[in-house]
Design goal:
With about 300 residues, the protein is mainly β. It contains two helices and 15 strands.
């Protein structure tokens, strides 16, 4: 039985060692079964693999889909082992109707004792990420040092998606030059960028969702003493959200209110201003048996 594995994140060398009762082919047209694998993040921070088995030739019209969910704490070896097990189970349906049927066997691993109680998520689907870094570089006439940090929190369920983040960046550069007016002979450049942002999205139907985003930033580089933006929006997906790991065609429309306070007077002679903008963001993502594609257009006004 010839199988074409269409997966960009799979350990094919491992699968070829573990699943040996099939022939792996390089072209979809040469296969009896095409296995298309897509992935998406889960609410608890893990990864969900969707395996779509598409029959060709003698199995044309015999299709099925199986799902494997790897928890966030799973190691790479545990993930590939769990994936291989589901991969084999999905192929059994086709092998049972092939000359391999006489060589198949069924093994059932019986668990002893009571059934395990459902696992309770103490974090209630929240995922937190903390990041930070820094660097220093210097030579005879110049030096630069930088430090940054961030904290992110996200939560995804069937009905709600929330994301919040805080970040801070500091960069300092010194350059030795000919004596300037204060006689120091050194030019100092300091850049500070800090910000917080949040997003809350509610799924209304399989095609419509409603959301609200808000952000506040300060940036010496962009001349913002404080910039605050609040923007409600609506999104429509031509395809059901349940198929978003394979395909999506969305149109997102937001209307935002911006309050800008500037560090220095702008070229238009303003130290503060209030603006209203609206944005239209069409986007497309496609992962089908014949290939994949992605595109996005942003039209602010």
């Amino acid at each position: 039985m010839r199988v074409f594995l269409d997966c960009s994140r799979c350990d094919e060398a491992f699968l070829k060692r573990e699943v040996t009762f099939i022939d792996y082919v390089r072209n979809r047209e040469d296969s009896d079964v095409h296995v298309l694998v897509t992935t998406q993040r889960t609410g608890s921070g893990g990864t969900q693999y969707l395996l779509q088995f598409i029959g060709h030739g003698p199995f044309r019209g015999v299709d099925q889909s199986l799902t494997y969910s790897a928890p966030q704490t799973a190691t790479a070896d545990e993930i590939r082992g769990g994936f291989a097990q589901l991969f084999k189970l999905g192929l059994v349906r086709y092998a049972a109707e092939s000359p391999l049927a006489d060589r198949l066997g069924v093994t059932f691993n019986e668990t002893r004792g009571e059934h395990a109680a459902p696992v309770r998520d103490p974090w209630n689907f929240w995922v937190f990420r903390i990041g930070g870094g820094g660097n220093f570089a210097g030579e005879e006439t110049s030096s630069t040092k930088a430090i940054n940090g961030s904290l992110r929190a996200s939560r995804t369920t069937e009905q709600w998606r929330s994301a919040f983040s805080v970040n801070a960046n500091y960069r300092e550069s010194r350059f030795k030059v000919d004596k300037n007016d204060d006689g120091s002979g050194t030019v100092l450049s300091v850049r500070r960028d800090n910000g917080v942002d949040g997003l809350v999205v509610k799924s209304l139907t399989e095609h419509w969702s409603l959301g609200l985003s808000a952000s506040a930033i300060s940036s010496t580089f962009r001349n913002y003493d404080l910039r605050v933006r609040v923007a409600p929006g609506v999104e429509y997906n031509v395809f059901p959200y349940s198929e978003s790991s394979r395909r999506k065609l969305t149109v997102e429309y937001t209307v935002g209110v911006d309050a800008n306070d500037y560090i220095e007077e702008t070229v238009f002679g303003r130290t503060a201003e209030r603006l209203v903008d609206h944005r239209l963001d069409p986007g497309r993502g496609l992962r089908q048996p014949r290939g994949s594609a992605a595109a996005q257009v942003n039209y602010p006004q």
